[in-house]
Structures are given as C-alpha cells and as structure tokens.
Amino acid sequence: MSDWLRERVMNFTFARGAIQQVPSALPWFEKLIIHNNVGCVLELGTGVGSLSVMFGILCPDRVITCDREDRLTRHIKSVLLRLGVDCVRGDLYDEGFRDLLMILINQVRINGQALLLLCDGGDKHKDFAMYAPRVLPGDVVACHDLASEFIPERSDILQIADNNKLERILVEEMNKDKTRLAVYKKRTAE
Questions:
Q1: CATH for 3-186, among 3.40.50.150, 3.30.1490.20, 3.40.50.720, 3.40.50.300?
Q2: What is the dihedral of CA 108, 109, 113, 118, to 10 degrees?
Q3: Along the 190 residues of the chain, how does pLDDT read in single tens digits?
Q4: What are the angstrom distances between the C-alpha of 90 and each of 59, 65, 96?
Q5: Which residue among 52, 87, 162, 181 has the highest number of C-beta atoms inside a 10 angstrom radius?
Q6: Which secondary-structure segment (H or E) carries 182?
Q7: Which residues of 138-174 are buried (b: 16+ CB within 10 A; e: fewer)?
Q8: What backbone torsions phi and psi does residue 173 show, to the nearest 5 degrees?
C-alpha cells in the first residue's frame, strides 16, 4: 500500500478503530442496508472490527463476523458484545465451517428481509465462489478491494454470478466515487 493511500485510508476511524475501507464505503453500506431491506449481515473478514460495529448499529443482534485471527481491541470487543454481534473464528475456506456460518446466519435472518454478505476475507474471489451461491433471492453480496483483490470481470466470477442469478448493481455510482466495492443482488425467481 502506498504511503499516500495508507495516510488517506488507515487514518479513517470509527468507534475508536481504523476503518479498512475508503471513507465513501460507509455511507454506501448504510444505503445498501436501508434500500435493500437488509436485516442481517455476514461479514467474511473482521479485520480490526470497526466496520462490524457499524453493521451492529444498523442490524443489532443480526450480525455475524468471522475471521481466522482475532485482531480486536478490548474496546471493540465490548462494543460488539453490546450490539449483539457474533464474532466467530475459523477457516473461512473450510466447507464445514462455511456450512456452519450459513446455519447461523439463517437462525438470525428475519423473514422477508435480505442478507448482506460482505466478502472481505483473505481471498475475495474464494469468498465469492464459496458463499455467494448460497444467498437467497433479494440478498446483497458486496466484495471489497475492487480491482486490486477482486476482479468482477474474471471468467470464473462472471460464471458464478450468472449461474446464481447475481446481478451487479450500482457499478457507475460506485466507480464514480472510487468506493472499491463490487455489489451484486440476487434476482428473485423468474
């Protein structure tokens, strides 16, 4: 990461912790949650947990965040606990762990409300390949680090999106403000 980018991104904080997203991402996540009737969030890649706090504020008791490592401060852990955010540790790419996460998210899913799946683990393409096919119609999938770590034009990603009726949305708007998110919405049954 360049010094210029580190200065702009890593000094952006929320809930006394660094947000590892560009600043424009937060309002976009809020819009995605509100305008798509999102009732629960599955975040792949907790990082330092500040974005998890925002999700917990917007969807209290309905957020599961998971990562292999625990990099959360005591402060962030206490805030997440108060918001009812479940912090799960494990190998995101183990099929058994994936199946467990999907069971957990379906237990907190509210009928009629969508899921926001954030692919922000160590391998965004693998996150997408393993988890996106399991979302339901109306659910939203967001992949972070567009162009550097997630390439939506890759043939395997295009095939997964097509096979699972995942339509890319808000492309022009997000490209315009350099949000670095690729967002998909699962089409309803035709």
A1: 3.40.50.150
A2: 90
A3: 445 444 454 456 767 777 777 778 888 999 999 999 999 999 999 888 899 999 999 999 999 999 999 988 899 999 999 999 999 999 999 999 999 999 999 898 888 899 999 999 889 999 999 999 999 999 999 998 877 888 999 999 999 999 999 999 999 998 888 888 999 999 986 6
A4: 23, 11, 10
A5: 52
A6: strand 181-186
A7: bbbbbbbbbeebbbbeeeebeebbeebebeebbeeeb
A8: -60, -45
**So where are the chain's domains?**
3-186
Strand (E) positions, 31-180?
A: 38-44, 63-67, 86-89, 114-119, 140-144, 166-169
Residue with tokens 């683990």: 121
CA–CA separation, 159 and 129 (whole Å): 10
41 within 8 A of 6, measured Cβ to Cβ? no
Q: Contact at 8 Å (CB) between 141 and 128? A: yes
> What is the sign of the dihedral through the CA atoms of 128, 131, 136 and 139?
negative
